[in-house]
Amino acid sequence: MQVAIPLFPRLTALDAIGPYEVLKAVPALEIVFVGERRGEVRTGTDQLGLSVDRTLAEVPSPDVVVMPGGPGARDHLAGGALVDWVRDVHGGTRFTTSVCTGSLVLGAAGLLDGLTATTHWGSFTTLRELGAVPVTQRVVEHLDQRIVTAAGVSAGIDMALRLLELLFDDIAAQASQVKIEYDPQPPFDAGHPSKVGAAVMERVAEYSRR
Length: 210
Hints:
With about 210 residues, this protein is of the alpha/beta class. It has one domain: Rossmann fold (3-Layer(aba) Sandwich), CATH 3.40.50.880. It is built from 7 helices and 11 strands. The protein has helices at about 15-25, 80-90, 100-110, 125-130, 155-165, 170-180, 200-210; strands at about 1-5, 30-35, 40, 50, 55, 65, 95-100, 115, 135, 140, 145-150. The strands form 3 sheets. Strands 5-2-1-6-7-11-10 form a 7-stranded mixed beta sheet, with helices on both faces. Helix 2 links the parallel strand 6 (about 65) and strand 7. The radius of gyration is 16 Å and the shape is globular.
């Protein structure tokens, strides 16, 4: 079973690598990193490179798509090769999924029209403009449409665990969770703007200007 993870300039690394670490635990899954051209792409802050191993044309019928997000996702909202590929392959996937602003790419491909979906909290307006109904949930499923969207960045790990349950069973998902020792116990309850104060959000804005 083939899982395609698209890579593009200025993606958020964890959007792709979080699900990859979860999914690669299952031997039945072949994970391929795809893009418009083979070679390295630089992630959001240009400090880390990831490698595209196959072109979009070389992966015409993946069983699963995991679309990451990041600042570069917005470069595709007017259409182009990546959006066309997502639209084309979705007809044959078992699941087409997204992490963070990867859902904007699904929206640009017309896959979220009228559906509830999620993304990073800072991109709800854009998601709505692309035809979806944004909701504040960690993972949003439309199993009849074969679409699953995840909220910002780290939510991709949760989504990938759920995806393993859907593709195999809950034992597969739990085995992967144990393997990567995903046992979150964060020192702060600060995972969403609704949980923090103005000082924290000011710092978020400062960091976002990088």
